[in-house]
Design brief:
The protein is an alpha+beta fold and 385 residues long. Helices cover 34% and strands 17% of the residues. The strands form two sheets. It has an eight-stranded mixed sheet. A hairpin with a 7-residue loop joins strand 6 and strand 7. Helix 7 packs antiparallel against helix 8.
């Protein structure tokens, strides 16, 4: 069963580094100094500045999150239904990459840690032209980031730059621009600092990224979910991206937990307002979680709701659950949505419909189904010229 989560979201085999760590000695750097810094990092808590993707497949994991020398993050791996069927795929979007990977693995789970996620560095491996940093999230799940350098024998400066690209030392490390500030008194200056900064994450009076209920829902801990609800947990509380426990459970295909959350008043039409901007139904449709789709629809989920933002599963936004299902080849999900009166001819902000998505991704069975149910054939004329 495929699992896809977004906290909250690196495919490649984890290969033990057989190359001894050799570094340039220029600018006062030394092998010992870099190794000592790497060792010191282990056990430290950090906050991600980048999205990290990992796929657990069979008995191994595939790490595919890379940072290049210019600080650009990209995702590349070999994904397929078996070791002999792997092929290269690459994307600069964590969401698109995880989407592509989830369609190519037979059994496994796709995980995405979004930037801002609190992690612990559990391992740092140094190679001739790369650094691999292993991270563990608060739930114990592991992933890795690989920093690739164009030159071998990288320096301490290269190492520090790589760390700065990937990690912040605290969630409060937000670069605030102060422009043409007038001179102020010491008292006003101290007050401004107090108003702008906290000394620790616990001092920040904002929504946390993952509530205990969200974590329990994601981890499939139904007993903890029931316990938290009984103790008064708000089933509709959101993190800073507007994601709810229902969305977390849906991404992991936790059918029983979805039932519990809905029975206890979870809003089936709530929209995440971060980089995802989707409803639980859109998530379920995207990955073909048919049982969850039926639960959500039976409890009032809007089959024609739209994702609002430009980053919602593509360049344009305005997607519906039907578009997501059609794009990802989820035939059963498409049928469920059609049977529940989804508007077949709605178009996203880029002007394309579910039919176009199905045709563009070579899902001929879905194309036939949509046409048989009234889809406008003119939508795919541009693809057949």
């Amino acid at each position: 069963m495929k699992h896809f989560i977004y906290f909250e979201c690196s495919i490649l085999f984890i290969v033990a580094f057989s190359i001894p760590p050799i570094f340039a000695g220029g600018q006062g750097d030394s092998t010992t100094t870099i190794q000592a810094m790497a060792k010191e990092l282990e056990g430290q808590q950090k906050w991600l500045r980048i999205d990290v993707v990992r796929i657990q497949y069979g008995i191994g994991g595939k790490d595919a999150t890379y940072v290049d020398p210019d600080g650009k993050t990209y995702y590349k791996a070999k994904v397929g239904e078996g070791l002999s069927a792997f092929r290269d795929t690459q994307s600069t979007s964590a969401e698109d990459f995880a989407d592509e990977a989830s369609k190519k693995i037979k059994d496994g789970e796709v995980r995405v840690w979004h930037k801002g996620r609190k992690v612990e560095i559990h391992e740092v491996k140094l190679g001739r032209d790369q650094i691999q940093i292993g991270i563990t999230d608060e739930g114990g799940a592991k992933a890795a980031i690989k920093f690739m350098f164009e030159k071998k024998n990288y320096t301490m400066e290269d190492f520090k730059k790589a760390l700065t690209v990937a990690f912040a030392n605290s969630e409060s490390e937000i670069p605030v621009k102060i422009r043409n500030a007038p001179l102020i008194s010491d008292g006003d200056f101290k007050k401004a600092l107090t108003d702008s900064f906290a000394n620790s994450e616990s001092e920040i009076p904002v929504k946390i990224r993952n509530t205990p209920l969200m974590s329990a829902a994601y981890n499939g801990d139904i007993a903890e979910v029931r316990k938290l609800i009984k103790e008064g947990a708000d089933v509709n509380e959101t993190n800073v991206e507007g994601q709810t426990a229902l969305m977390s459970a849906t991404r992991q295909n936790q059918v029983d937990i979805v039932k519990v959350l809905v029975e206890n008043g979870a809003d089936v039409n709530s929209k995440a307002q971060g980089s995802i901007e989707v409803t639980a139904l859109m998530i379920a449709a995207r990955f073909g979680y048919d049982d969850i789709m039926k639960i959500l629809i039976d409890n009032g989920a809007d089959v024609n709701a739209r994702s609002d933002g430009a980053r919602a599963s593509g360049a344009d936004g305005g997607y519906t659950a039907l578009m997501r299902a059609a794009r990802n080849g989820q035939t059963k999900a498409v049928k469920i949505l059609i049977d529940n009166h989804a508007n077949i001819n709605l178009k996203n902000k880029g002007g394309v419909s579910a039919l176009w998505h199905a045709a563009a991704h070579n899902h001929s069975d879905i194309v036939d189904m949509l046409l048989a149910n009234g889809a406008d054939p003119n939508d795919i004329k541009s693809l057949t010229k």
